[in-house]
Amino acid sequence: MAGISIALKLAYVVVMCLLVAASLTQAAIPCGEVDSGLEPCINYLKSGDDLTDSCCDAVTQLYSAAKTTPDRQAACQCLKNAYDSIPGINPSIGAGLPGECGVNLPYKITPNIDCSTVSM
């Protein structure tokens, strides 16, 4: 009987460790959050006209939210996907958007970027 009790306690500890580990490795920034956050930038990304404060605020907030390498890689992939899902985005304008908003990235988000190389 004592053996069963110890086994149950051990199983409980293992499950708790797995739950804690799962919460620590929580998914990076979701694309829905990236897409909706950058919605104020769509017209600028298509035409290069009227870079708004709300667009730059969104860029700055996204940059601030992406604190880890996995966050930045996930955000990169979301932005890369946006080139395909939103017709008319000008890749040159998209690549320059962070700099136009005062965010200094050591890489350019383009349709061809390898997001696995993005780091802190």
* Rg from Cα: 20 Å
Output mean pLDDT: 81
Task: Note the total helix count.
Answer: 6
* Approximate strand percentage: under 5%
Distance between the termini: 53 Å
Strand count, sense and barrel status of the largest sheet are:
none
Q: In the CATH hierarchy, what is the superfamily? A: Plant lipid-transfer and hydrophobic proteins
Overall helicity: 55-70%
Question: In sequence order, what are the helices and strands, one letter per element?
Answer: HHHHHH
CATH class: Mainly Alpha
According to CATH, the fold-level topology is Hydrophobic Seed Protein
- Structurally, the number of domains stands at 1
Unreliable spans are 6-25
Assembly state of the chains shown: single chain
CATH architecture: Orthogonal Bundle
What's the number of extended β-strand segments?
0
Could you say which overall geometry the principal axes of the C-alpha atoms support? Answer: globular
What does this structure look like?
The protein is mainly α and about 120 residues long. The chain has one domain: Orthogonal Bundle (Hydrophobic Seed Protein). Helix content is about 65%, strand content about 0%. The protein has 6 helices and no strands. α2 crosses α5. The longest helix is centred in the first third of the chain and has 23 residues. The radius of gyration is 20 Å and the shape is globular. About 15% of the residues have low confidence. This is Non-specific lipid-transfer protein. It comes from Cephalotus follicularis (Albany pitcher plant). Plant non-specific lipid-transfer proteins transfer phospholipids as well as galactolipids across membranes. May play a role in wax or cutin deposition in the cell walls of expanding epidermal cells and certain secretory tissues. Keywords: Disulfide bond, Lipid-binding, Signal, Transport. Belongs to the plant LTP family.
